[in-house]
Amino acid sequence: xxxxxxxxxxxxxxxxxxxxxxxxxxxxxxxxxxxxxxxxxxxxxxxxxxxxxxxxxxxxxxxxxxxxxxxxxxxxxxxxxxxxxxxxxxxxxxxxxxxxxxxxxxxxxxxxxxxxxxxxxxxxxxxxxxxxxxxxxxxxxxxxxxxxxxxxxxxxxxxxxxxxxxxxxxxxxxxxxxxxxxxxxxxxxxxxxxxxxxxxxxxxxxxxxxxxxxxxxxxxxxxxxxxxxxxxxxxxxxxxxxxxxxxxxxxxxxxxxxxxxxxxxxxxxxxxxxxxxxxxxxxxxxxxxxxxxxxxxxxxxxxxxxxxxxxxxxxxxxxxxxxxxxxxxxxxxxxxxxxxxxxxxxxxxxxxxxxxxxxxxxxxxxxxxxxxxxxxxxxxxxxxxxxxxxxxxxx
Length: 395
Prior knowledge:
With 395 residues, the chain is of the alpha+beta class. 26% of the residues lie in helices and 24% in strands. The protein has helices at 6-11, 58-75, 87-99, 105-112, 188-192, 209-218, 246-252, 267-276, 278-286, 365-373, 388-394, and strands at residues 45-47, 113-118, 122-130, 132-136, 145-148, 155-156, 173-176, 182-183, 202-206, 220-224, 230-238, 292-296, 315-317, 328-333, 340-346, 356-363, 375-385. The longest helix has 18 residues, at 58-75. It is globular. Residues 1-37 have low confidence and may be disordered.
């Protein structure tokens, strides 16, 4: 799936949310659909070091192999937006992966892949996690923040004021007004004020609107129900409104820092500001007009953009315009905990550009701490099936 330093750098500053299916906008909290925007030029590609020279640990390789196998059905069947590979490039290596013994996973990557450096290989990474907050399937005292399913009147269409020659890519999201005109969908303030109330769209109710706001930024999460059980909810769609990162707003207003009246640039710091300044904090959250809709996810993990579960320490979000979704990626960065082999299984609204990654850390207090402080620079390599690199170097 799918994050100040991280939330300043990504989730809140620029908006990293992870939708979880190829049918929705690329995993993240998308901004408005851009029309007439050409595909980005592919980066330069050069040969990297042999996979055997990388410091791949046994547990790291085993987790990456399991996630790679889960991605294979999508990897071989979907169109690669990065133009690095085709589905056919992955069929043989996926067949091999399915039969490969997990205890010898490192040798799988050493024997089946070669590394490529995209551009200069320099990377910036952040982190995300699956938050757990208090919730209830039915509204009851103390649970008053609705968790909405995707509304049936949210649709894509071209507004009448956009001429046919200006229409390119997907039409923008919106709704039809009383006169049948396509208009932007309800924003966060309107939804909080009840624009969707009484329509039977509530799939659950959250206890804390602040926690739920941050869960929307992550794009998926767990609701801890009153009886102690959990309900996993995942991204179903977004209202089409551009994401505004409250971390960047706070920084612009001098609220981020170490001085008097300032707060740390972390998720915890932003939450503290909102709680200590409830009226200003509520208004600040409303300055982000984006709203995320959810569905219940009965699987064993949150779904990433490949519609397969993302796994702690093995799944990473990237920009699919540059990195093949499903491909292994090697990271060597300042935060050693993030060094190692990852599988590109997710995307994010803030995860844009070559070698930009968002690492997934699972759920629970430790995951929250790691993801909330993950902001690191270093170098990245993408692993490609043998033979693909020669074709890329010749093009």
